[in-house]
Amino acid sequence: MKKILIFDTTLRDGSQGAGISFSVEDKIKIAKALDNFGIDYIEGGWPGSNPKDELFFAQAKKLRFKNAKLTAFGSTRRKGCPANDDKSLRAIVDSGVKTACIFGKTWDLHVRYALKTTNEENLKMIADSVSFLKSKKIEVIYDAEHFFDGYKNNKEYALQTIKAAWDAGASLVCMCETNGGMLPSDIQKIIGEVKNVFPEMRLGIHTHNDSGCAVANSITAVEEGCIMVQGTVNGLGERCGNANLCSIIPGLQIKRNYKCVPAASLPKLTELSRYVDEIANIVPNDSKPYVGRNAFAHKAGIHVSAIERQSETYEHISPNLVGNERRILVSDLSGKSNVMSKAGEMALGLDKVSENAGKVIETVKNMENQGYQYEDADGSFFLLTKKALEDFKPFFKLKGYRVAVEKSSEGKIVSEATVKLDIKGKEEHTVAEGEGPVNALDNCLRKALVEYYPEIKNIVLTDFKVRVINSEANTAAKVRVLIESSDSAKTWGTIGVNENIIDASWQALSDAVEYKLLKENKVKSNK
């Protein structure tokens, strides 16, 4: 297996994405995770450009990386300034790193208008900067900014710039597709020509996703001879983002037999993706290739029936290779295969030869016609199935609830809920306050039940989503409430639909509790 170096710039280029702001602690956590995953280079930031990056490198000195080389980012020296006196280069040296990645101008348009200098001076700036860092025993990776645009506009000069870096001692020249507008055929043609001119030069690729081709362009570059790929976890980055390493690594390692990370790390890819999203405070994109929650989700009955027999019919790889899992979705598009697969997954005990599956399918279709959706509501689907099969005895019955919201003249808002329940033949009348009406209702329900069912103490509401179903009805529109609940062992979703958001919330909240009690009751009965 040919080794491809993976250069992660999540902490530097990724942090430039809209809405991304990593603290120093965040960056340390991500750096440790990347190192444990087996990344070769971790670009920590630009020392000297801001206090946060300076503090990060100061703290990173105390870390002992097992796999990665911590890398500092910077630019070539300023025009007319000796490299030894350049603040950016001195900051890299002072950071204590053993590897630096510096960028320089390739496109003569930028030399003229951004640097406001001559082509000749820019070549000296590149060579001097690389030579200076090399003299300090620092490995230098040279990022040729706007390489492909520069090559298209002035091929000869673009080649001169990377030759200047290589001749000065750069260990690798990374061609940057900075504007993100190239297509794979452009990348293939230009890299092929560069390889013909400089057959001994070690080349890398750095792409952006403005044309939606960052991953494809990176893989194409490797197939054309590049030995390093720069990118970010989940494709974080400016504008449309950087090349997504969570797609590139499995694409190269599984499908092209290159070695990017240790074999034992690949099944941890989904975990890494979700860990970075969590630290970045980003709602994960469920449709991300390989690592998204929906990457191996199947909804159409024909698809489910086929993958039950042979997974390759509708899955390009086995999900466990990247630490993901198959999901069978139940909806109005479902066939018997969906219901049977989901029932097997949830241990519902449906009989394949009975009419029970058909009953459940019809119930699901009728409910979805009213606005319900069970793709992310396993708990409600479980209860629906039990009720459709007349195999469910409620743990409590609602006799009524009331929710009040009061705002004082001082601006203080108080939400209070009152709930009447029939629990094991006894009426419970409970009052509770909360941060909002739904929280008050949730607190009131738990308060009423906990004496009878103490096992609900460890239920935590982890997510709450509201979606308007028929917006054309304006304020009379139906809303769909999806709740995610969790205990120490499992996470489950429940759903409610109504024109009244409080009642839709009640449905989802009560389903969440009843699902938990039903599962607990089953565990006890099996002992």
Can you tell me about this structure?
By secondary structure, the protein is of the alpha/beta class. Helices cover 39% and strands 20% of the residues. It is built from 17 helices and 16 strands. The protein has helices spanning 24-37, 51-60, 87-94, 108-115, 119-135, 147-153, 155-167, 184-197, 214-223, 245-255, 269-280, 301-309, 336-345, 356-369, 378-388, 437-449, 501-526, and strands spanning 5-8, 41-45, 69-75, 99-105, 139-145, 172-177, 203-207, 228-231, 297-298, 327-328, 397-407, 413-423, 426-434, 460-468, 479-486, 491-498. An 8-stranded parallel barrel has the order 1-2-3-4-5-6-7-8, surrounded by 8 helices. Helix 8 (184-197) runs parallel beside helix 9, helix 12 crosses helix 13 (336-345) and helix 15 crosses helix 17. 43% of the residues are buried. The mean pLDDT is 92.
The proportion of strand residues reads 15-25%
Question: If helices are DSSP runs of H or I spanning 4 or more residues, what is the number of helices?
Answer: 17
Count of β-strands: 16
Shape type: elongated
Helix/strand-derived category reads: alpha/beta
Task: Tell me the radius of gyration.
Answer: 29 Å
Average pLDDT taken over every residue? 92
Low-confidence stretches: none
What profile does the largest beta sheet have? 8 strands, parallel, barrel
> Biggest sheet, strands in spatial order?
1-2-3-4-5-6-7-8
Helix content: 25-40%
Alpha-carbon distance between the two ends: 51 Å
